[in-house]
C-alpha cells in the first residue's frame, strides 16, 4: 500500500467517525431533553401526589393503622405519603429512561427497562393490597375489641389481636399472589389457613359452646310447651 492510499484510508475512517458523531448528536440531545423534561414532570407529580394524600387525610389514617411505624423502622427520611410520591416519581422516570434509550437506539437497555416497567403495576397493586389490609385490620380489631368489651367478656384483647393478624396474613398472601411469587404454594397456604380457622372455630363452638347451645334449645322447648 502506497503512502497516498494509506492516507486516504485514514481520511475515510476519520470522516466516517465524524459523520457518525454528528449523526448521533441529535439523538443524544433528544435523549437529554427527554430525561430533563421527565425529571421535571416526575418531580411535580411527586409533590402533587404527596400533598393530595395529606390533604385528604390519608397520612393520619396511615398513622392510625400503624403503617407509619413500619416506615419509620426502615429509617427512611420520608413518611408514608412521601414514599408514595417518590414511587410515582421514579415510575415516571423509568418511563423517561425507556424513551431515552429508544431514541439512542439502545434496544437491549430499552427492552430490559420496559420489562421492569411492565412489572410495576403488580408491585403497585400488591402495595395497595397491603396498605388496605393494614387499615382494615386495624379498623376490625377496634370493632371487635369494642364489641367484646361491651359484652363484658374477658378476651377482648385476644379476639382483637386474632382478627388483626388474620387479616394481615390474608393481605400478605394476597399481595404475594399478586406478585406471582410461588402462586401454587400461596394458594395451598391460603386454603390451609381457611381450613385451620374453620376447624378451630368449629371446635371452639363444639367444645366451648355446647352448654350454651343446650341451654338455648332447652329454653325454646320450654317456651313451646307453655304455648
How would you describe this protein?
The chain is mainly α and 227 residues long. It is 89% helix and 0% strand. The chain contains eight helices and no strands.
How are the SSEs ordered, and which strands pair?
Blueprint: H1 3-55, H2 58-64, H3 67-73, H4 80-104, H5 107-150, H6 156-179, H7 183-208, H8 210-226
Name the features.
227 residues; mainly alpha
Q: How many runs of DSSP E, i.e. beta strands?
A: 0
Order of helices and strands: HHHHHHHH
Number of helices: 8
Shape: elongated
Main sheet overview: none
> What ranges have pLDDT less than 50 throughout 5 or more consecutive residues?
none
Mean pLDDT: 75
Task: Give the N-terminus to C-terminus distance in angstroms.
Answer: 125 Å
User: What integer value in Å does the Rg equal?
Assistant: 31 Å
Structural class by SSE content:
mainly alpha
Helix content percent band: over 70%
Strand content: under 5%
Amino acid at each position: 500500500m502506497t503512502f497516498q492510499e494509506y492516507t486516504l484510508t485514514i481520511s475515510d475512517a476519520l470522516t466516517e467517525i465524524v459523520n457518525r458523531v454528528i449523526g448521533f448528536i441529535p439523538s443524544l440531545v433528544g435523549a437529554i431533553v427527554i430525561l430533563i423534561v421527565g425529571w421535571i414532570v416526575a418531580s411535580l407529580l411527586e409533590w402533587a401526589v404527596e400533598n393530595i394524600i395529606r390533604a385528604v387525610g390519608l397520612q393520619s389514617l396511615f398513622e392510625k393503622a400503624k403503617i407509619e411505624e413500619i416506615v419509620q423502622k426502615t429509617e427512611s427520611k420520608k413518611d408514608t405519603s412521601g414514599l408514595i410520591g417518590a414511587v410515582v416519581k421514579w415510575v415516571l422516570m423509568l418511563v423517561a429512561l425507556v424513551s431515552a434509550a429508544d431514541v439512542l437506539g439502545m434496544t437491549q437497555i430499552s427492552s430490559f427497562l420496559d420489562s421492569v416497567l411492565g412489572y410495576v403495576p403488580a408491585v403497585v397493586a400488591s402495595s395497595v393490597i397491603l396498605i388496605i389490609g393494614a387499615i382494615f385490620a386495624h379498623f376490625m380489631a377496634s370493632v371487635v375489641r369494642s364489641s367484646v368489651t361491651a359484652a363484658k367478656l374477658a378476651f377482648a384483647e385476644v379476639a382483637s389481636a386474632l382478627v388483626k393478624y388474620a387479616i394481615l396474613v390474608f393481605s400478605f398472601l394476597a399481595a404475594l399472589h399478586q406478585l406471582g411469587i410461588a402462586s401454587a404454594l400461596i394458594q395451598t397456604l391460603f386454603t390451609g389457613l381457611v381450613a385451620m380457622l374453620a376447624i378451630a372455630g368449629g371446635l371452639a363452638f363444639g367444645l366451648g359452646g355446647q352448654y350454651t347451645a343446650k341451654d338455648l334449645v332447652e329454653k325454646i322447648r320450654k317456651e313451646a310447651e307453655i304455648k
